[in-house]
Specification:
mainly alpha; 5 helices; MFS_trans_sf; OATP; membrane; transmembrane
Length: about 120
């Protein structure tokens, strides 16, 4: 058991991939935690709608992604370095997408129109 553990600990590809996953999740966690509140304020959704979007839909797409990746990996059997390179590529795309959120926005008029409790705008 100790011999196997040493061998795993000295596998550089595996360890770097694990470190990358830890840092990726640590960086992504605040975004994921505050996403429902962000959707409520930015897109004027109710708390239940924003929780549905981030909770239920997030779980569904995560499950589909895990199942599809399992099918692809078991069918094509890529090498460990190829999988690590794929993880780096997907991580880079994900981080680029998150950075691009800073440049998205609404016009100033959209933010100045107050909403009534029933969701209608009061500018009519």
């Amino acid at each position: 058991m100790i011999k196997t553990f040493k061998r795993v600990m000295h596998n550089r590809t595996l360890m770097m991939n694990n470190f990358a996953a830890v840092f990726y999740f640590l960086g992504y966690m605040p975004y994921w935690i505050f996403l429902p509140k962000y959707i409520e304020t930015q897109y004027r959704q109710s708390a239940s709608a924003s929780s549905l979007i981030t909770g239920s839909m997030g779980l569904v797409f995560s499950a589909v992604g895990i199942l599809l990746s399992g099918i692809v990996i078991s069918k094509y059997k890529p090498k460990a370095r190829s999988l690590a390179a794929w993880n780096v590529l997907v991580g880079f795309i994900s981080v680029s997408g998150i950075i691009s959120y800073a440049y998205l926005g609404c016009s100033d008029m959209d933010n100045k129109i107050p909403l009534l409790p029933n969701g209608d705008s009061s500018s009519e």
